[in-house]
Design goal:
By secondary structure, the chain is α/β, with parallel strands linked by helices. Helix content is 41%, strand content 25%. The record marks 281 as: Essential for prephenate dehydratase activity.
Length: 391
């Protein structure tokens, strides 16, 4: 190692140069990912190749250790992000080819709450890869999101469906039972709950706290330690922050995202207040027409079904899925309105709707269920990290 001494300004200048080089290389790598997708159109190969990804990571880890003294965990974390980006880029490219009629210069998107709500953040995240300009339509309740899309005033709706801390969002599941809309996409967003207010005060000085009911549930352990605080609900976390801004009182706070709080001139008072450190919400994207999914892309199929009241009816349906090797990632039951003691089951499956196995399973399920409807087949946006042994 050289003994040459550099000034802080010289070091910062060199770091800036290296960062620019990294950005240039990442941009070039992204372009090559699109070229890979183009070649797969010709060969009909699937987007993901697990053995290829494993070989790549092992090679990078070994080279990083031997040539550059880089830690294996650091390399793995970095390239998991790069591989995920590459997979999603390739999926987006193949989906554009599969759905030429869906390619519009802009998309009208309905979501819950004002700008800065988690649904708004999810909308922007999902459509950031779609090369579309967004017209953002905020709604006050979930039913309004669905109706805005059903009426044609919006092209898409974004709805939260479940959270790792508070569980399923039943109101949205109930909406799916009656809507004519289809699920065309999904997104999982990390939820970083923060207490925000108009000024930096001690927690003991807070008298009133605004938020959506879901964050109240997700932060229940933290809230139980706040004595004498009134909890008030709003249509969304963004509306809660907007309310705090309007009231402009130091003793009133909101639960929301810290970066969204800045939109309303609020500052963070306490971060990491959720019950679980790994707090994520899964959102679904709905539209009036189903989307075509390239068979080269990992896909999910969501369906709803009701079974007879006879013992073992649900098990019989699930055994059909097992027989065809279809993995179920979610099973949720909700009461059927107007039919006491009867339930509708929502099922998420790791399977392409057009696959032979899925089609055969649907034929059998139709025969043994009272009601069966496919809510949608859509690309799996959650890219599972490639597994390699670190050691």
């Amino acid at each position: 190692m050289s003994d040459t001494q550099y000034s802080l300004d010289e070091i910062r200048l060199r770091l800036n140069e290296l960062d620019d080089q990294l950005l240039n290389l990442l941009s070039e790598r992204r372009q090559m990912s699109i070229e890979v997708a183009k070649s797969k159109v010709q060969t009909s190969k699937p987007v993901r190749d697990a053995s290829r990804e494993q070989e790549l990571l092992v090679k990078l880890i070994n080279n990083g250790k031997s040539k550059y003294q880089l830690d294996a965990e650091y390399i793995t974390k970095l390239f998991h992000t790069i591989i995920e980006d590459s997979v999603l880029l390739q999926q987006a490219y193949l989906q554009e080819l599969a759905n030429p009629d869906h390619q519009k210069p802009l998309a009208r998107v309905a979501f819950l709450g004002s700008k800065g709500s988690y649904s708004h953040l999810a909308s922007r995240e999902f459509f950031s890869r779609k090369n579309m300009e967004l017209v953002e339509l905020n709604c006050e309740i979930f039913k309004e999101v669905a109706k805005t899309v059903e009426s044609g005033h919006a092209d898409y709706g974004v709805l939260p469906i479940e959270n790792t801390s508070s569980g399923s969002i039943n109101e949205v599941y109930d909406l799916l039972q009656h809507t004519t809309l289809y699920i065309v996409g999904e997104l999982t967003l990390p939820i970083e709950h923060c207490l925000v207010g108009v000024s930096d005060i001690r927690l003991e000085e807070i008298t009133t706290l605004y938020s959506h009911p879901q964050p109240h549930q997700q932060c229940s352990e933290f809230l139980s330690r706040l004595k004498g605080v009134k909890l008030k609900t709003c249509a969304s976390t963004a509306d809660a922050m907007k309310k705090v801004q309007e009231l402009n009182r130091p003793d009133i706070a909101a639960i929301g995202n810290a970066s969204s709080g800045k939109l309303y001139g609020l500052q963070p008072l306490q971060g990491n207040i959720a019950n679980q450190t790994e707090n994520h919400t899964r959102f679904i994207v709905v539209a009036r027409k189903p989307v075509e999914v390239s068979t080269q892309i990992p896909a999910k199929t969501t369906l709803i079904m009701s079974t007879s009241q006879q013992a073992g009816s649900l098990v019989q349906s699930l055994l059909v899925l097992q027989r065809y090797g279809i993995n179920m990632t979610k099973l949720e039951s909700r009461p059927i309105m107007g039919n006491p003691w009867e339930e509708m089951f929502y099922v998420d499956l790791e399977a392409h709707l057009d696959s032979k196995e899925m089609q055969q399973a649907l034929v059998e399920l139709t025969k043994i269920t009272k009601h069966l409807k496919v809510l949608g087949c859509y690309p799996t946006e959650n890219v599972k990290p490639t597994q390699v042994k670190l050691g």
